[in-house]
Amino acid sequence: MDAVEHGAPDTVRPPGAGVFRALPDESPMSMEVQSLSAMPDTHGRGRVPATEPPMIALRRLAVIGSACLLTAYGAYEMNRVLNSMGVSILGVVLLVLFVLLFQWIALAFTSAVGGFVSLLRQGGLGLGVSRDGTLPALSTRTALLMPTYNESPGRVMAGVRAMYDSLAATGQLDAFDVFILSDTTNPDIWVEEEAAFLALRDATGGHDRIFYRRRPVNTERKAGNIAEWVRRFGGAYPQMVTLDADSLMAGEAVVRIAAAMERHPGVALIQTLPEIVNGTTLFARMQQFAGRVYGPLIAHGIAWWHGAEGNYWGHNAIIRTRAFAEQAGLPHLPGRKPFGGHILSHDFVEAALMRRGGWAIHMVPGLAGSYEESPPSLTDIAIRDRRWCQGNLQHAKVVPTRGLHWVSRMHMLMGIGSYVTSPMWLVFLLAGILISLQSRFEKPEYFGDTKSLYPHWPHVDPEQAKYVFIGTMAILLAPKLMAYVALLFDRAARQGCGGAARAAASILVETLIGGLIAPVAMLIQTSGVLSILMGQDSGWNAQRRDDGGVPFGSIVRSYWRYTLFGLVLGGCAWSVSIPLFLWMTPVLLGLAFAIPLAALTGSRDVGQAFRRAGLLLIPEETSPPDILRRAAAAVAALPPVAPVGDAAHMLLADPALMAAHRAMLPPPRRRGDPINPDLLVGLVKLEEGTAREAAIQSLSRSEKAAILASRDGLDRLRALT
Description:
alpha/beta; Spore Coat Polysaccharide Biosynthesis Protein SpsA, Chain A
């Protein structure tokens, strides 16, 4: 707990400064933990929000009904492929898996059709939000919340600086405060955060608008970080904008969604569509190109039929603080990790609980000015995916929650499916090989024991299988074609992507390389699902955001098993038949070349070569908007990258930093408070130390963090010579 939580003053007068306040006065707001087994108190709100789009039921019927019809037709055709071999266990398994997987891509296709129509009609805003024109005047206060966990302090503060200046340019800075909410556990990064925070205040003059708070114990991770802020300060801010450490939002975009919240008191959350930017490696550039070209189609589609039952992606969204405090207090799930404990993928659940409480959840994908960054390599995204996978699988315990809207349940089921489909694809692939193997080595019985004029063919019908494959691939790739057509109608976006020809070539490159990566990603996600089912927790690690390459030796150690699997799979296919081997070539190539693929896609040099060739371009890099230029200038102004300094030396060398640091510390331990063993051990080491440098070196990271969070520890450290 920090100082304010215990009622200790968080003000001090550092040398040569006025009254230092790291935080504003508290304005507590009650936030009770919700029950998943009892109906919520909706406080008289109706079941259908006032902002629900008209004829939403017909939209949903069109999307989901069409997907079901497509799936039924696909199942019929697949049954014709398998029916000639008679009923078998493998045939039934293959048909069931095909239906489940086909339904997944069919829903994506029909949703994309809705998005295509919405894009061409220039829809996707709603709630009275406009893309341009005069900015609305605000009458309430909004807090921008920037959670950070062991991130680069300079980059975090550069992003905050860009957003602060962008808000100032709107002329409505008085309506906003910024909170840096640190969950950092590395003591050296923590003190660098404090120094960067003080420098940011001095540079902007935002001493009464930019605030900083670090939690010594990061209970419940980001969800707990936000909830702690709501309970302490939420009463002063009707709205809060939630961000990630790599988030950027233009001031105009923030003002427009804040005004929409003021106009619609029944709306709890408005989610923007964050565009991926600043990618330098080939992998990151593929991600940002796909997000920029395909993302709007997908987002407009789900916004079109989700209506007021939208979803929350955890950042770049504005939330009504009262609705969040009233309905989104997350309980701990029963059982042990990885399925029990606090909820990892909290955003889906928070949106579902607020909608359950009668609040509306909307998305405005047509509003520009919302940005984020992508992990730079397949390895980095696999680490992040492992954590997301565990969080999404946890939702199996949340889906039965009483009172949830069926669309909210669907969000969580789709989130589970986004990971469960990987092992399903793998089993489907293996079952297909086994069926081909059975057909290859099983002695044919054309007429059996009964007299018949027609033979019973004991093999898969290859001609019919070809048509099913072509139809499936057409449905899978059609959204990319629709996104390209929509791009052609958007002159600015088309030119920003290098023109129609280069955009088409970029889609081809992204599709081919993405297709090669897909089987590797399938196995990565499958191993993640299996490890979670075996009880392994993902932990919580900081996300790597720079474009530094992964050592080739690490890539080999991480990906050799996928190469080996691809070679074994190829050998099995070859032993069955050469046509089967050729049919599986895209999958086999991706697996066999997993190591060079991971190395090349994670390379900055390769990524920049594609940029120089005019491929995988996005408008935000060919003509950067104001907020991105501000952020780039703030990052460029940072000092050269250097190893993180030692926190103890930084504090001892800078009296003003030490004074501010002490002002933000928790109060001394009171009788009956929990005992911190790291602090006790650290104090003993300092007591027994004779030289300051040796004493600092003897401290573990957790012990040093405890010492630096204690006034007594700081005094003992300063007393050493």
